[in-house]
Amino acid sequence: MHEALDRWFDQVVPLFENGKAPTIIDLSRHFSETRGELMGSVMQAMVEKAYHHHIHQEQAICPECARILKRKRFDRKAVSTLHGEFTLNRPYFYCQICKVGFHPLDDVLTMAPERHQYDVQEKAVKSASKLPFEESADQFSSLTGVDVGDHFLHDTLNAVGDVATLELVIPDRKEIERRIDEVSRSIGTPPILAVGADGAHMPTRVKAKRNEKRGQGSWKEAKGFRLYLVGEKGRIVQIASWHQIQDAEAFRKDLALVAGRIPQDRVRVALLADGAEWLWPAMTACFPTGRPILDFYHCAEHVHEVGNSLFGKGELKARQWSEAILSLLSYSEMDDVLAILRGMRPETEETGEKVRNLAGYLEKNRDRIHYETDRDDGYPIGSGGIESSHKYVCHTRMKRSGAWWVIASGNNMLRIRCAIVNGTYERVFEHYATHPRRSDEGC
Ligand SMILES: [Zn+2]
């Protein structure tokens, strides 16, 4: 370590030559350029000291048959960390009978099979989940001095995404209970747990084979849910977000797994969604005591559309009519509203159709419309919570011009982004770094 430091001191000397003193910028630039070499050498010295025995070991035991093996050779490996790069000569052992080869040093060091180690990978994947791969690689190297490259970012994000199952991405039961307890204590009653569900269309494409032209993309629905607690003064306390491009059945299974982690007797559940048919059966099955609430803003949008069609967009009368209907709805006067709608004789067939649709929509969602009681009981009436989750988790990274996602990669990206939002990313990454991967090469 002293040698490394001496070499580094020698590099500083030219900065002070010709009677010139360096500026802060000069010093900072110099440190950026030389710290990797200095710290890499220091780290190498530490590893060689701490693992002297492993580095020089001549014998190892075969993990399969327990025979004693003699060292076959040394393999050099470039090791890149956030603080610098160095090389290690690792002894290699091979069992002729079991046909297995291994580097014992790699295991004791929890070394990544890639050149870039897990400290780099963890931060780089996080960064690639926020920005397009190329932009993210540029930014990462300019900030850390580690050149990761966009392909490495893409592949690593997918490898981490592959292990990011729902079980890992959703906080465990203990953590969920801790968050519920905290809110319960601050408001003095069992808190409201809002469960929102919604779909959003994502640009997808089929994976092209080598030398094959990419086919035309198509829009597929990412189905998602978000669970959050309504805390003091309406503060939102995140429990879990999960969004995947998948069908309604897979959505139901995922929601059921999360519902199983919620102590439902310690919260008051509000189920919030628009009128989409695929999500209600899953929500009510997973949260049987939940209060279903039709998103007020979707409902209001429908009403305003009909008002505009009846009296002309932007007309005072259109607004008055819509607001009258909405205020009846908020006092749960559903029969009055339906009677008004059925008694209307619109001038055009098109408007008549719209009025009938609205009546059908309200009737179908009748049991989910009780906004006055909801307000009195402190329940949210809008699905804004799930919509902002959709916007943040899906849209900001997935819907960029020219981006068409192969479904598996798109879902991997969504899983990583959900893990970050749920506060479980470190756990997911830890799992990735400590479990064998399919892509691990033997050597
Ligand atoms: Zn063996």
Report on this model:
The structure is a single chain. Helix 10 runs parallel beside helix 11 (279-286), helix 12 packs antiparallel against helix 13 and helix 12 (296-311) packs antiparallel against helix 15 (349-364). With 443 residues, the chain is α/β, with parallel strands linked by helices. The chain contains 19 helices and 11 strands. Helices cover 51% and strands 18% of the residues. The protein has helices at residues 2-12, 24-50, 52-56, 104-108, 118-128, 133-144, 150-163, 166-169, 173-187, 248-259, 279-286, 296-311, 316-330, 334-342, 349-364, 371-377, 384-398, 407-422, 425-434; strands at 59-61, 68-70, 73-81, 84-95, 100-102, 192-205, 218-230, 236-245, 268-273, 291-294, 405-406. It folds into 4 domains: 2-108, no CATH class; 118-163; 166-295 and 382-425, no CATH class; 298-367, no CATH class. The structure holds zinc ion (ZN).
